[in-house]
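Side project, low priority. Logging it here so it doesn't get lost.
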Amino acid sequence: MKWTDERSGNVEDRRGSGSGGVIVGGGLGTLIIAAIVFFLGGDPSSILSSGNMGSGGAQTEQRELNSNELKIREFVQMVTAENEETWTKVFADNGLKYTPARVVLFESTTKSGCGTAQSAMGPFYCPVDQTVYMDMSFFKELEQRFGAKVTEFSIAYVLAHEMGHHVQNLLGTLGETDKVRTSGNYSEAQVNKVSVATELQADFYAGLWAKQTDNREHILEPGDIQSAIDAAEAVGDDNIQKRSQGYVNQESFTHGSSAQRKEWFMKGYNTGDIRQGDTFNQLLSN
């Protein structure tokens, strides 16, 4: 992936700050969090506010960031800036105003508007404070446990997916899906289908971002799109379930299969048109 000269001021780096946070308790709470490791995106507030989250105040010593960590910060600042520019244009083209999201880099635990963020949860977007939270150790696990080769564009894809949830928040999509989730009028299987449609739309938006940003900045290099597909497929529900429990239960999918995640990312990339991303109409009408 080619770097551009753009850098966003909306990235906060909390790594090395020595901040403590809530410690995960044992028992069922730990199992729930383990089950959603590597599930990209979504609103984690229901898990973050779980009664199994014990309150601890463990502090870590402050430390200086090394050169690789500083480079990662700069890379995230660049990708964030390119998301801001692309989505500002997309919104403007449709008569809307885009409000940028914030990005927080952290390690282990940190506070978020949705509760306590923990590295075991993977990257996520919190609609309460309109912020993406990322512990970069996620990418080591993505490579070592789920078989995806991690490149700079893999990281860019993950961040673009989370920014896709911010787009959904600004457009009111997340508010509508939350009503479905909390209404009590739908079965678990129906709620899961809505969740899948939400996540696949964020994949579509990530592909759209890649297309429009490349048209403007020519950021893509050979292999970049494939690395994004590899990451998307690695966190497909079927792949995660096979690796974690040895079998696949499609009714419990919350993020979509590996094939679906590839399909919708590529649809966003191939069309570059936000109007083609209605995953809800396509998936929920079946």
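Brief comment: Residues 1 and 220 are 5 Å apart (CA to CA).
Revisit when time allows.
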